[in-house]
From TrEMBL:
Protein's recorded name: Metallo-beta-lactamase
Transmembrane intervals: none
Matches recorded under InterPro entries: Metallo-B-lactamas, NDM-1-like, RibonucZ/Hydroxyglut_hydro, ST1585_MBL-fold
Organism: Halorubrum saccharovorum
Signal peptide residues on this chain, from the entry's feature table: none
A Pfam family hit: Lactamase_B
UniProt domain Metallo-beta-lactamase: residue ranges: 28-225
Species lineage: Archaea, Methanobacteriati, Methanobacteriota, Stenosarchaea group, Halobacteria
PANTHER family: ACYL-COENZYME A THIOESTERASE MBLAC2, METALLO-BETA-LACTAMASE DOMAIN-CONTAINING
SUPFAM superfamilies for this protein: Metallo-hydrolase/oxidoreductase (SSF56281)
């Protein structure tokens, strides 16, 4: 699958995955469209390539007045940047996002500023988000259910990645839309890579979020990056190890170098070995993730001194 294309998710009727073409990397940005009685779009991409998403929704056969839900897993702009644009195009769709993300989608100014600071020259792959009207959006929380008519999605808070993050479970199809709660599964190398952005990444909570997915024991995981795959229990164990080892690697490098910018530069240089997305994205990803862990380590140290 390439940028702008979509395909059915094998084993899950009426579910489709759309490749947004994010960061000029095939399948990096996954948007899910559920053609249920009350259709839903799960995540939206950055909004930069929204016309191809509109085309996908049209080709699936969902009319503009029929889309019932625009459901973001969290407010980060690679997942929710297009929410306002979709709200403009689909007049009857209600927008939902975990409660702490509502203000960011209604007034995205602070989120845009933070994202530009974090991703720097990678902002070229984003688009200025359109605000979601406050009468079209509401917050959701643990245990809430999104009514799709012939099925429902159950909300599970997963704040390890960010306080405004959740994953969604369809009990009937036994599929979990993980967003970033299970890391990034990269099919090309058959492994899970951590995602630990600043400023509120929390390792301990990430491990609890992974355990929550594990307890559901689903048939399928729909990752926010690189798309769906069949669930294997070993995958969650692999993700837990990846997160623990990543945080320990940053901790050890900080102790060795004694300078946070040197730590970030070290991991940026190490990213040259990454071959499954373009070099500039690999470098930006390494910078973002290492800064998130450094911020987490500072917070842990502060809490231990209190």
């Amino acid at each position: 699958m390439h940028a702008g294309e979509f395909e059915a998710v094998r084993g899950v009727p009426d579910l489709y995955v759309h490749d947004t073409g994010m960061y000029d990397t095939n399948e990096y940005g996954a948007v899910y469209v559920y053609d249920a009685e009350r259709p839903v779009v799960i995540d939206t991409g950055t909004g930069a390539n929204r016309e191809t998403l509109f085309e996908t929704i049209d080709e699936i056969g969902i009319e503009r007045e029929e889309l019932a839900w625009i459901l973001a897993t969290h407010a980060h702009l690679d997942h929710a940047g297009g929410a306002g644009h979709l709200a403009e195009r689909y007049p009857n769709a209600e927008v939902r996002v975990p409660e702490k993300g509502v203000r960011h989608l209604v007034d995205p100014g602070a989120l845009v500023a933070g994202t530009k600071s974090a991703v720097q020259d990678q902002w070229q792959y984003y688009d200025e988000p359109a605000p979601v009207p406050d009468d079209r959006i509401a917050g959701i929380a643990e245990g809430d259910r999104i009514d799709l008519g012939d099925r429902e999605l159950v909300v599970h808070d997963a704040p390890g990645h960010a306080p405004h993050h959740a994953f969604y479970h369809d009990p009937d199809a036994d599929v979990v839309f993980t967003a970033d709660a299970a890391g990034i599964y990269v099919p090309e190398v058959d492994t899970v890579r951590p995602t630990s952005p600043p400023p509120q990444f929390d390792l301990d909570q990430c491990l609890r979020d992974l355990s929550a997915i594990e307890e559901l024991d689903p048939e399928y995981l729909c990752f926010g990056h690189f798309g769906p795959r069949e669930y294997e229990p070993s995958l969650i164990g692999e993700a837990k190890r990846a997160y623990v080892e990543w945080v320990e690697a940053v901790r050890e490098k900080r102790e060795a170098l004694g300078d946070d910018e040197a730590v970030v530069e070290h991991f940026e240089e190490a990213s040259r070995d990454v071959e499954f997305w373009n070099p500039e994205r690999a470098r930006a990803d390494a910078s973002l993730n290492s800064r998130g862990v450094l911020t987490y380590l500072d917070r842990v140290e502060e809490e231990s001194e209190e």
